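Researcher: Please generate the 3D structure of the following complex. Treat every line as part of one assembly.
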Amino acid sequence: MKEIAARFDDFADGRRTLVLADPSRPLGLLGIVHPESSRNSVMDRRSFFPSTFKGIARGSARSIHGFDLQQALARTSGLLLKWGGHKMAAGLTLSIDKLDAFADEFENAAAAYPSETFIPAGRVDMPLPLDFVGDELFDTLDRLEPHGYGNPRPTFAAGKVRVNTNDASAKGWSTSR
Amino acid sequence: MTMEGGLSAVFWRGARQLTPVSPDLEKPVDIVFQLDRDRRSNAPVLNIKDMGVLLPS
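Model: Done. Output below.
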C-alpha cells in the first residue's frame, strides 16, 4: 500500500484524476488497497485502479458528488472494450495499450468540471456552539426522528473548540495518526 | 475524548477523510459532529465526523 501511495504522489501533481495499472498485481488487489490510498492522498480525485491480465485491464471506481462517472466514461468509450455504471460508480475493461490514452481522455473529462467539484466537502445543517448541547436540544431533535434515508440525522459544526488533551484517548489519537 | 466543558466525544474516521492532516489538538479546532446519547449514562455524546481547520475564519 505504501508503494502505491508513493506512486500517487509521483503522478498526482496537477491532475484531477489518476489511472494506475500494475501487471505484477493480481486481479482485485488494487481494488483492495484503494481505500487506504484514498486516505493518504487522493480523496479529492476520481481514480481508476485497473488490474491487468493477458493484455487486458479491468478497473472500477466510485465517484464524488457532482462528478458524473457515466458521462466521463461515455466520453472515453471509443477506447474501452466494455464499460458500465452510473453517476456514482462504474467499471470498465480495456486493452492495456489504451491505458495512457484512456487516462488522458478521462482527465480531459474531469477538466471540464469547475475546480470546486474536487474540493473535499461535507454537509453541515447548521452551526451549533457546544454551549447549546443539552436536554432541551435533545428534546427538539427527538421530534425529527426517525432518521434514515431521506431524513438523515442532523449534522452540526462548531468552530474553535478545545479538546482536553489530558484525556488519554485524545493523546493516543493525536500521536498515533 | 473530552471536549471543553466536559462533553464526551468519539471520533472515528473510518474510510472517510475531509482534512488532509491530523489537527494539532493543543490548538482549538473546528469540528463537524452529530449528537448522540451514551447508552449507559444517557449523557450527551458528540459523534465527531471530522475535525481540524474546517470553517472559514
